[in-house]
Amino acid sequence: MSRLLLVVLLLANVGTAIGVVYARHLHRQSFIELARLEKTRDELNIEFGRLQLEQATVAESNRIDAIARTRLGMKFPEASDVVVIQP
Q1: Measured between alpha carbons, how far is 39 from 46 in angstroms, rounded to an integer?
Q2: How far, CA to CA in Å, does 19 sit from each of 66, 84, 85?
Q3: Which of 12, 76, 16, 17 is nearest to 4 (CA)?
Q4: Mean pLDDT for the chain?
Q5: Which are the contacts of 68, defined by CB distance < 8 A and separation ≥ 6?
Q6: What is the spatial distance between Cα 58 and Cα 1, in angstroms, rounded to a whole number?
Q7: Which of 5, 59, 84, 86 has CA atoms 20 to 30 A from the CA of 70?
Q8: Side-chain half-sphere CA neighbours of 65 within 13 A
């Protein structure tokens, strides 16, 4: 009877040890995935900041006005060229 109890306790101990090793393995895999995802998040945040800065630069009204004048030959209409339509 005591031998059976000893064998059962030994198997329970080995099973628990295997469970702990497996849980630690899963924890390490999860931690590696978390670190990878955090790195990706940080890279995306940096890229988003760059894109916001680029958008602010491209959408600046002085720049748009200069491009309209130089590349497209646009200008503000003279007062004599403005026609007001009454409803």
Answers
A1: 11
A2: 69, 83, 83
A3: 12
A4: 92
A5: 74
A6: 84
A7: 84
A8: 4
* Token pair 């009204």 in the structure block, residue: 61
Residues of the chain below pLDDT 70: none
Q: How much is the pLDDT for 77? A: 85
Rg (CA), the chain: 35
pLDDT value at residue 42: 98
Which two tokens mark 63?
Answer: 């720049």
Residues in the chain: 87
Among 4, 24, 27, smallest CA distance to 16 is for: 24
Contacts of 3 (CB under 8 A, 6+ apart): none
Return d(Cα 2, Cα 6) in angstroms, integer: 6
* Amino acid identity, position 8: V
